[in-house]
Specification:
With 226 residues, the protein is of the alpha/beta class. 33% of the residues lie in helices and 19% in strands. The chain has 2 domains: 2-153, Alpha/beta knot, CATH 3.40.1280.10; 169-222, Trp Operon Repressor, Chain A (Orthogonal Bundle), CATH 1.10.1270.20. A 5-stranded parallel β-sheet has the order 2-1-6-5-8, with helices on both faces. Strands 3-4-7 form a 3-stranded mixed β-sheet. One of its GO terms (molecular function) is tRNA (guanine(37)-N1)-methyltransferase activity.
Length: 226
Amino acid sequence: MRIDIITVLPELLDSPLNCSILKRAQDKGLAEIFVHNLRDYSTNKHRRVDDYPFGGTAGMVMQIEPVDRAISKLKSERIYDEVIFTSPDGEQFKQSMANRLSMAGNLIILCGHYKGIDYRIREHLITKEISIGDYVLTGGELAAAVMCDAIIRLIPGAIGDEQSALSDSFQDNLLAAPIYTRPSEYKGWKVPDILLSGHQRKIEEWEHDMSVERTRRLRPDLLEDE
């Protein structure tokens, strides 16, 4: 998998994209992440990529020309499955979407900034708009990092135990069951006996029941989505 991220703040992505699972996946050759500075595609001598909006609205708007130049250059080199724009009014990013995107070959993520982007970018250059939550960030860089982490960790071989990802919260629209480790008793607080029983089938039944119970109590909306 290859992910190309277009941003005006490439330095903001240095740490999250080069640590832990994302770094290991790249070191193994399972994923490639390239960060492109949008200012490199500006024709302005000051490398500006924004301007005042028509109509007198407050704030600055990302211009269409540098974005088009960046996306067109990338698309001239390979075929992309999606050109994604990080936007608070996009489709909600969920585990099911991460699952689908993890099977893609090439993705572009355009990070929004300033007041927003020239709407013609959304009309003509973007294939998918994604939001990581109902709130507004200063820019889309952190959202892009979140999506990269959620997507790449699902690629076979990215994490040591592939079965671990299958039992994460939100798979099958359920929260994960409670998990415990040693010691089995601490300050009188005990691990449920079933987990120490060695009866794998009963343990799996308990885990499923607990997942349903936790989801019903904490996130009933997930059950409504079924």
